[in-house]
Amino acid sequence: MAVQKSRRTPATRGARRSHDKLKNAALSVDPTSGETHLRHRVTPDGFYRGEQVVKQPEVADDDE
């Protein structure tokens, strides 16, 4: 069984835990659609920095 040789100091313990805190997601609002999205990513509508970069597929209406 593994047994530690010496006790960890509070400073070492704190240094290890310093990266455990969760950060808030960086959100941005698109100027055209006004939609909130993650930074540097295309919105679900296909807009990036105010320009439409991904075309949405056309929905065919079957009213026949």
CA-based shape: elongated
Please indicate the percent range of residues in DSSP E strands (runs of 2 or more): 15-25%
How many β-strand stretches?
Answer: 4
Run of helices and strands:
HEEEE
Helix proportion range: 10-25%
Strand arrangement in the largest pleated sheet: 1-2
Low-confidence stretches: none
Structural class based on helices, strands and sheet pairing: alpha+beta
Q: For the CA atoms, what is the radius of gyration? A: 24 Å
Rounded average pLDDT = 85
Number of helices: 1
Spatial separation of the terminal alpha carbons? 75 Å
The quaternary structure here is: single chain
Largest sheet entry: 2 strands, antiparallel
Describe the protein's topology.
Blueprint: H1 10-17, E1 27-29, E2 36-38, E3 47-48, E4 51-52
Antiparallel strand pairs: 1-2, 3-4
In short:
This protein is of the alpha+beta class. It has a domain at 23-55. The chain has 1 helix and 4 strands.
